[in-house]
Design brief:
The chain is of the alpha+beta class. Helix content is 26%, strand content 27%.
Length: 503
């Protein structure tokens, strides 16, 4: 079967080819969603197979031939992983075997939300049907960014060709971020820049009392063969391997910013505390696909954003207000983006000048309600709106988009079904039958949990390199409409903009 992709903002899949407007609608696809073409269409409609629920089965249906295209889109999905970050990139690769387009995972939250989403997205990979990601990126060693990789490493058949990080591995003892430079004490120089250095650090940590979650997780992944290469990314690399400016999709590495000490050793600046230093040296990426740019900003803070501005412009912020426009124009060339993943979940620890330099038309905030920081902060939301472009800039939130209403309509019935299945397992005495019932019970529980998190709450960004669609699912289907869609399109100057129907 050949892959095809939804060619319009939303595309309806019908149960059959014949009938009137009243024919049953199976599902509403979003621009770029993939279907399997069962046969070359002869008439107005094409028969396809697609998923209509959260299971692993594809169902047959009919789609208008004009609603399908052959080229995939760049997919960027900000998954609702609760408090933390989790972002999946699927590249617009064409002519790849079995439609295995390159996928890059950037952070994975703290719990198993991302693991469950990936099982949904990639059809429950297993030893019989493995899935190898092109890359995983841990932006920095904070648990709400890296800890979710643990459950992913536990998925059978899932691995990463490359695992990237910012060079900092938190450790036991008096030097939790490694040694600093003798000549420049403000620089951390004991960086974990490759796999051999990681193995050395893990061996040293194993001999020390106590426990650190980050090295322990990396050890399990390494011993389990869950990743091939392990490499530090920094601005000195310019581009992520495989995504240079010569490629259709480029990924610039904007941070962390590596500095040299007096002895020529590479190091990362101390920002005043362990937490600020880890956050401030997040892996920061700018993704460019043709004419569309996206900034993925990790957990940057004021000192790191100020360092970014100095690095990009080569100068301090001018004292003369008359020079500020030229300064921001220069900063925008190195930091500007159409879509931005808000830094640090909407923390108030941000630079307004940095926001002005990025000047996005749309911003996505990844945060959760089970946290003590009240992210996103009210002043941050206001500043994003103020410093974004357009009369009605867009701000999306995984926390606000989250809902399970459309899936769990009868919680009492769900509870009763699970209890009944569990009781059947406990009562069965035959070993073989008990194992089968236990498998059914686990599947039922997994699907129930899955429905509450995997789709609702995600922010979907799709682009062909010219236009951008950003969408979230309605809490409840409205007149057959499943998607709340926002369309960014080039204006007369070629700059992406959003036009509201209410202007």
């Amino acid at each position: 079967m050949e892959a095809r992709y939804a060619a319009n903002q939303t595309v309806t899949v019908y149960q059959d080819e014949n009938g009137t407007r009243s024919r049953k609608k199976l599902v509403q696809l979003l621009w770029g969603d993939m279907v399997d073409l069962t046969a070359e269409p002869a008439g107005e409609y094409a028969q396809v197979k697609t998923r209509i629920d959260e299971g692993s089965k594809r169902y047959p249906g009919w789609v208008l031939k004009s609603d399908l295209q052959t080229e995939p889109l760049l997919e960027v999905t900000f998954v609702d992983i609760g408090q933390g970050d989790g972002c999946l990139l699927v590249m617009p690769d064409v002519e790849v075997p079995d439609n295995k387009r390159r996928a890059v995972l950037i952070d994975a939250g703290e719990r198993d939300n991302m693991a469950r989403y990936l099982r949904y997205r990639f059809w429950f990979p297993s030893e019989r049907r493995p899935y190898r990601f092109h890359a995983g990126i841990i932006s920095h060693p904070d648990s709400d960014h890296y800890k979710g990789f643990g459950p992913i490493f536990g998925l059978s058949g899932v691995s990463f060709e490359n695992l990237y990080h910012n060079g900092l591995v938190e450790r036991k003892g008096s030097l939790p971020l490694g040694a600093t430079s003798a000549s420049n004490p403000e620089l951390y120089v004991d960086l974990v820049d490759g796999k051999s250095k990681l193995e050395k650090v893990l061996a040293e940590e194993a001999r020390k009392p106590g426990r650190k979650l980050y090295p322990d997780m990396l050890r399990k992944g390494l011993e389990g063969g869950k990743f091939g290469n392990f490499t530090m990314l920094s601005r000195a690399d310019r581009f992520m391997p495989g995504f240079t400016n010569a490629d259709d999709v480029s990924i610039e590495i904007l941070g962390p910013v590596v500095e040299k000490d007096d002895d020529g050793r590479s190091g990362l600046r101390d920002f005043g505390s362990k937490g600020k230093t880890k956050n401030g040296h997040s892996v920061v990426l700018r993704l460019t696909y043709r004419h569309v740019r996206m900034l993925l900003g990790g957990d940057l803070n004021i000192p790191s954003e100020e360092l970014f501005l100095r690095t990009v412009t080569g100068q301090e912020v001018p004292d003369d207000p008359a020079e500020l426009d030229a300064y921001l124009k220069e900063a925008n060339s190195g930091l500007g983006a159409d879509v931005m993943k808000c830094c640090h979940h909407g923390s108030a620890d941000f630079s307004s000048l940095f926001l002005r330099a990025v000047n996005p038309v749309a911003t996505v905030i990844s945060s959760g309600d089970d946290e003590p920081h009240s992210h996103p902060r009210a002043e941050t939301i206001g500043a994003i709106g103020k410093h974004s472009r357009g009369s009605r800039p867009l701000i999306f939130s995984t926390e606000l988009a989250r809902s399970a209403k459309d899936f769990i309509r009868d919680p009492g019935k769900e509870r009763a079904d699970i209890k009944r299945a569990h009781t059947a397992v406990l009562k069965e005495t035959d070993k073989r039958k008990r194992a089968a019932l236990a498998k059914t019970f686990r599947k039922l529980v997994d699907q129930t949990i899955q429905r509450t998190i995997q789709v609702y709450g995600a922010i979907y960004v799709r682009t062909d390199g010219k236009d951008v669609v950003i969408a979230q699912k309605f809490e409840r289907s409205n007149a057959g409409k499943l998607w709340d869609v926002y369309h960014l399109h080039p204006d007369s100057n070629g700059q992406l903009s959003f036009s509201s129907a209410h202007e």
